[in-house]
Q: What sequence folds into this?
């Protein structure tokens, strides 16, 4: 039995790509939380955009992990 190196390479490339995408989306979620904290510190209220961004990004990360 010989290993299929092409398939193994494709799996490796896809897994690295997905890992990179999850890290980027997680960073965008943290950025949304920072935007939420920055807005509440400056104006005393919350930013719906920051909260929405963080929520969507964290839900996307959770969907990929599951």
A:
């Amino acid at each position: 039995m010989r290993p299929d190196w092409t398939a193994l390479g494709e799996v490796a490339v896809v897994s690295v790509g997905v890992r990179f995408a999850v890290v980027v989306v997680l960073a965008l979620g943290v950025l949304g939380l920072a935007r939420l904290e920055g807005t509440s510190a400056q104006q005393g209220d919350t930013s719906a955009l920051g909260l929405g961004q963080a929520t969507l990004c964290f839900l996307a990360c959770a969907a990929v992990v599951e």
Q: What stands out?
A: The helical segments are 5-43, 48-65. The chain is about 85% helix and 0% strand.
